[in-house]
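User: Need the bound-state model for magnesium ion:
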Amino acid sequence: MPERAQQKERVFRGIAVSAGVCRGKVLLLAAASDVTVPQYSVPDDGVAHEIYRFEQALAQTRQQILDVQRKVTEGMGAEHASIFEAHLLVLEDPMLIEEVTRHIHKNKVNVEHAFREVAEKYARTLSAMPDDYLRERAADMRDVSVRIINNLLGRQETVDLQHLTEPCIIISHDLAPSVTAQLDKKMVLGFATDIGGKTSHTAIMARSLEIPAVVGLKNISQKLKGGQEVLIDGFNGLVILNPTEQTLYEYGQVQRQRLTFEDRLREMKDLPAVTSDGVSVVLSANVEQAADTESVQAVGAQGVGLFRTEYLFINRELLPTEEEQFTAYQQVAATLQPHPVIIRTLDLGGDKYLPHLNIPEEMNPFLGWRAIRYCLQERDLFRTQLRAILRASVEGNIRLMYPMISGLDELVQANAFLDECRAELRKEGVAFNENLEVGAMIEIPSAVMVADALARHVKFFSIGTNDLIQYTLAVDRLNERIAHLYEPTHPAIVRLIKLTVDAAHRNGIWAGVCGEMAGDPALTPLLLGLGVDELSATPSLVPQVKYLLRALNMAEARELAASALNCDSATEIFTRSRELAKKVAPALFENNNPAP
Ligand code: PEP
Ligand code: MG
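Assistant: Bound-state model below.
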């Protein structure tokens, strides 16, 4: 194609987070907080018109906020809509309005520019205040500013990603997990972002949807333009602008080999997950939404090791009712029975937040009001979910698991509240499984250190390595700048996994891993050697793990783990585990086959 031949190929390198190769035209999303605002002079006789535009934009914004406020109040009650009161107050702030007006008069500039200057100054001042309440007002100021500027510029707030009309590749500064969850796979061939890490929930969602993705590309969203042609290589973390015929040919070859190998992997779907020396391991799958059960069955996973229920709550204005949750849980369990389905109670917070739940913006959301901490305070919401899970437990093989347990108190409180919900249902004559098994996620180092005490109150542990790594190593799982420090095989992590597994076994319960480590076949020898009883991975990764596991000799895996526990180097531990994986299943690591 002559047009492509004239344009130079350019390669951008980032972090590979979701396997696959795709090619298409760029759809560039602007970051909400980074709206570019034009600046131009206005003549003396244009000033009145700018002020008129300002008044119009304020009125339009006010109407929009009132509409959203009404919907949220109807759906969730007035207390959840209170944030909009603060937004309305910003719109009515006489000092702000006066200062913008003065700025236009004095400097003879367009209103968008004047407003942006003044609003930013206010937001900066507020965010530097020692008072929590005032600091939170900075976020309100910024939220409202974006709306006003979009209204002034006649710009849609966001592209409607659910109704795209042609296939594209999204390039963006960032994508929230809630946005990724909405992507239409037929239209969004892949995506690439400036920031992010391998275990961000956006990356996890991309793997779950099987959309090729690369993150941590630093400033790709400023370098590419809408409509340009790019290729995304989600295996190697590359974005290739204007790929040449030669590049496309090479990718075509590799793709054919991969597809042949994937067919071989699929043929093992119904074979048991048992090592070459006869040790059975439970190999299950992680799901984000009820519809994922199809993928779980397609790869022959033994049930669900982690059902992230947050996605039932995201991208909607009303919270899901008990009935709605009951139906979702019951459907998944009924479809997959007799295999177990481990339903994790709500883990909102961190990078998964719901603007309408009125969770204030936090300085450190991953250390903040998240998961079980949130649920133990928001009892109504927690009760609704626990009742729905309990009721669904009569259908299929449901287990329940709490996220982010940091110590015994939280676990005891959660269990006591679960008992209250049981008592309520009994009183109402509603059936549930009296023997429902309850487990705890082990993803905070403090939980590892008190694992013996925790083990006496649950039937299983599931190690959430994604968080365990970030909290142990103090490495934000979303931050691409420190992604090199996010080391799953750090000796501290290996030892913490071992401590957890040993505490579980000492107390007669089992321990699995449901973090992303479980889906990396290079780490399967290490995890199994450490004594992990269950691995739960994104469905698309289950076949590779099963292939590896069936080739692995447990005696060798144990030997490897013993040597890892005496090793001080993360790289060395990774290399040893990968070498053993490669020795027993070389095909998985050859010719760009799926394994990393
Ligand atoms: C984890 O932390 O490893 C985990 C599985 O939970 P999430 O990724 O949802 O935080
Ligand atoms: Mg977690």
